[in-house]
Every structure is written in C-alpha cells, then in structure tokens.
Specification:
Distance between the termini: 17 Å
Order of helices and strands: HHHHHHHHHHHEEH
Largest sheet: 2 strands, antiparallel
Radius of gyration: 20 Å
Strand order of the largest sheet: 1-2
Number of helices: 12
Shape: globular
C-alpha cells in the first residue's frame, strides 16, 4: 500500500485533471492566476522603463517578491488542507491545482478557430487565434497559416498549461506549482522584445526559460508517445523533432511544437522566424482537431508520469528514514 500522503497527492493530481476537463474556469475575481495577472499589470504601470539596470532590477524584484508571496500562500494552503479532515484535504489541493491548469480552455479556443475556418470566415478565425492563442500579428495570415498558428500554440501551451503544472505539483506541491504559474504569467505579460519590456521582463523571461527546460522536453516526449499510441509514424516524428527542436528563438518552445509537427505530418511556419516540419504538407482546419485529440492523449500520460515520480520520491524518502 502507498503511504496515505502519497495516496492523497496522486488522487489530487488526477482529480485536478478531471476537473480541468469537466469544469470551466471561474470568473476572474475568483481565479488566483487572474489575481497574479492583476498584480503584474499594476506593477508594470508604475515600473521604471528607461535605461537598463533600473528596469532589470525592478523586474527581478517582482519575480523575487511575487514569487515569495505565492510560495507563502502555497505553504499556508498546504498547512490548512493538512488540518482538514479526511479526503477534503486532497480535494482542496486538487481544486487549487486545477486552477493552475488551463488545458481545456486552450483546446476550446482551438475549436473556435477551427469552426471559423470551416465556415470560411477567415477574418473571425484570425481574430480568435490572435485573441486566444498567439501574440503575433494575425491580420495577414492565410487559412493555412492561421491553422498552423493554432496548432503551434496548442502544442507549446500544453507544456505551460498542463505538463509543467502537473510536474511541479508532483515535485513540490502547491508552493512549487503556484511559483511556476506566477513566473509563467510574468513572462507572458512582460517578456516582450520591445522598448518598454526588453529589460523589465528579462528576469521573468530567463526564470521562465529555466522552469520550462524540463517540462518542454518532457512534453515533446509525451507527444511522441501519444502519436505512437495513435498509430502515427514515430520514426518520422522523432526525426522532425530532433532536426527542428532548436529552430525557434525560445530554447523551449521548439520542442513540443516540432514534435507535434512530426506526429501530425504538417509544416508549422511562423514567417520570418522559423519553420518546423519543413517539407511536409501545410496544415488545414482538420489538423487543429487532430492536434487537440493528440494532446488530450498527452494529458493522462503526463498525469501517469507524475504519479510515478511521486511514488518513487516518497518511497525514496521512506527508505532514507529507515
């Protein structure tokens, strides 16, 4: 039998994944990630932006102070849940962990883009992919480029919104997953290469790069495994991943995106920046659905992997105590 603590952690992990599938996000006033975003936005409005050192130090201070605050909140929540009777302790952890996941919302956005493309409403599809999924300009995207942008974002954000939170919860509980979500939100809001954010968001961008190093590569491996289970050409997918995983400016984003390109057999191109899966066919709207189905297979694989990590970690700790 597993230790009671381990039983609860594993159950919380799987329950959070189920809740993400079944229950939509609460409104922003009740969502901790929205609170993080509001705090970051307030900081951004009053932060220094002139020069290098002052914005850099301000951004570093945000990551340190905000990170310390959310870690403290995670420790307090864990302490409170551990003093709750019975299964309610792990239900509480599952609810908080679910709020750090956003796979279902991501996939719903992908379906909206596909629906607009299926109806030949390119203007709406461009607006939806720009609003929900990517930060690049979308007004001039072709139908294929719009589908590619959706597939790319679905693959990349599966790492950020699903695999990484589960992995950090398995490794460090609520404090670790809340710190990850805070750093990732800082990068999403401040990590731009423009005059205002170049130095202000640099610390957040570098911390996010470090935190996503393992999850991005794990996501790529899980995408390949899901493709193999799905009957796709694994040798082709591995070849595309190994060839193109470093083609993006980001040290991490290319891994899940190139793996998805290889599994789906499509070329994913951001014009002027990168081309993943070069030589394969351009994607069409149906490939968005194929990508969503593929990535839903990744979800239980990620949960199973993280559950295994919990088992190994707790047994290792127990053996050291003997």
């Amino acid at each position: 039998m597993l230790m009671p603590e381990l039983d609860g952690r594993v159950l919380a992990l799987w329950l959070a994944l189920l809740l993400d599938r079944l229950v939509r996000d609460p409104p922003n006033p009740l969502h901790p990630v929205a609170w993080m975003g509001s705090g970051i936005a307030a900081f951004s409005r009053c932060a220094p932006t002139v020069g290098r050192w002052r914005p850099l130090l301000a951004g570093l201070g945000l990551v340190a102070a905000g990170g310390g605050l959310v870690v403290s909140a995670g420790l307090l929540l864990t302490w409170g849940f551990q003093r709750t009777c019975g299964a309610w302790a792990w239900v509480g952890e599952a609810v908080v962990l679910r709020l750090c996941l956003s796979a279902s919302g991501l996939f719903r956005a992908g379906r909206l883009v596909q629906a607009a493309l299926d109806q030949n409403d390119l203007t709406t599809a461009r607006q939806l992919v720009g609003y929900h999924l990517v930060s690049r300009p979308t007004a001039a995207l072709s139908p294929s480029q719009t589908a590619a942008a959706a597939v790319e974002s679905l693959a990349e954000n599966t790492s950020d919104s699903l695999v990484a939170p589960l992995l950090y919860y398995a490794g460090g509980g609520l404090p670790a997953v809340l710190f990850y979500r805070f750093a990732n939100t800082c990068d999403a809001m401040l990590g731009y290469h423009d005059e205002r954010h170049e130095w202000l968001g640099k610390a957040a961008a570098r911390v996010d790069d470090v935190l996503n190093f393992v999850p991005a590569r794990l996501t790529a491996i899980l995408v390949l495994a899901a493709g193999a289970l799905w009957g796709e050409d694994l040798r082709r997918a591995v070849r595309i991943w190994r060839r193109d995983c470093r083609a993006t400016l980001s040290p991490n984003a290319g891994h899940p995106m190139s793996a998805a390109a290889g599994v789906l057999g499509v070329e994913l191109e951001k014009v002027g920046c990168y081309r993943l899966g070069g030589g394969q066919r351009p994607p069409d709207p149906a490939d968005i659905s194929r990508g969503i189905r593929l990535l839903w297979v990744v979800a239980p694989l990620a949960a199973a992997f993280c559950s295994l990590l919990l088992v190994l970690w707790v047994r290792r700790e127990a053996s050291h105590e003997l």
